[in-house]
Amino acid sequence: MLMLLHGWSATADLNWHHCFGPLAKQFRVLAIDHRGHGRGLRHTGPFTLEDCADDVAALAAQLGIERLIAVGYSMGGPIAQLLWQRHRSLVDGLVLCSTSAVFGSTARLRALFRVAAGLSAARATGTVSSLAGSALGAVSRWNGRGGEVPWAVEQLARHDWKQVIEAGHQIGRYDARAWIGSVSVPTAVVATTADEVVPARNQIALAEAIPSATLRILPGGHHGCVTEPDQFVPALVDACREIADRSKESAPSEIVKLAC
After folding, report:
1. pLDDT at 23
2. Segment 131-173, tens digit of pLDDT
3. CA-CA distance, 206 to 100, in Å (whole number)?
4. How many CA atoms lie within 13 A of 76 on its CB side?
5. pLDDT, tens digit, for every residue of 7-21?
6. Neighbours of 9 (CB within 10 A)
7. How is the beta sheet containing 29-32 ordered, strand by strand?
8. In whole angstroms, how far apart are CA 241 and each of 23, 76, 95, 212, 256?
9. Taking Cα atoms as reference points, which of 238, 231, 209, 172 lies closest to residue 25?
């Protein structure tokens, strides 16, 4: 059982639409829209990544799912990590893609998340609308193949942008370095070395920090799940298959670096 956890300002469908079919050939697959994103829960309180992890656990309980592999992309990586930390009996394994145990560790990321923090505090409707417009433009660049653009715009139009901005602030504050080395379930990291959002060194450090982790290295950028599916999807399927097999065996594994 795979639970797919999408990245910041995306939706499950935007993040994973190239992956659903290939994964479904081998696994039962579920994907959730996180709070404030797409069709995700609407909540008047502050956005927290911990609440997102608890949402996944609540969904699993509602559906009678006792064990799952959490597959997290970008923001979904911290949510998957927190799901293991807070609901260990639920998590058989982790697949962590284009993500890290800490964010805001470079000048560019610190600047991005400072902006998110300022917007979160201001709750300025005009600025939120501006951010939404920028995100729509980014999706148009990702999905330059004509027919996908209106669909992507429709996905983003469902966002609660105030919650999305708060999510950006929380990602910037996230730091699991104090405990990430205690992750005890089979883990695979898929790192993107040309990543313009999460530095590749942080992604590789995540794999090195988790004793059970294997590492797959891809040459693409942060949005490779959408822009470069021919290389990302096979690596993802392979990582999920590995973790499913290892979770059955419950055997420890050394870090293995694979160039894909």
Report:
1. 98
2. 444 444 454 444 444 456 678 778 888 899 889 999 999 999 9
3. 6
4. 29
5. 999 999 999 999 999
6. 24
7. 29-32, 2-5, 68-73, 91-97, 187-192, 213-218, 257-259
8. 9, 19, 10, 15, 15
9. 238
Amino acid at 115: V
Exposed e or buried b for every residue in 38-59, given b needs 16+ CB within 10 A? bebbeeeeebbbebbbbbbbee
End-to-end CA distance of the chain: 25
Query: How far, in Å, CA of 209 to CA of 231, rounded?
Result: 25
Sequence letter at residue 48: T
> How many Cβ atoms sit within 10 Å of the Cβ of residue 241?
14
Q: pTM of the entire structure? A: 0.84
Sketch out the chain's domains with CATH numbers: 2-103+177-259 (3.40.50.1820)
Q: How sure is the predictor about 256, in pLDDT bands with cuts at 50, 70 and 90?
A: very low
Distance CA 36, CA 55 (A): 12
Q: What's phi and psi for 219, nearest 5 deg?
A: -85, 0
Beta pairing partners, 29: 2
DSSP symbols for 11-38: -HHHHHTTTHHHHHTTS-EEEEPPTTST
Token code pair at residue 252:
């420890």
pLDDT (0 to 100) of residue 152? 78
Identify the band that residue 107 occupies on the pLDDT scale cut at 50, 70 and 90.
low
User: Computed from CA positions of residues 65, 66, 72, 77, in that sequence, does the dihedral angle turn out positive or negative?
Assistant: positive
Q: Which of 21-25, 123-127, 139-143 has the lowest mean pLDDT?
A: 123-127
Cβ–Cβ under 8 Å, residues 94 and 27:
no
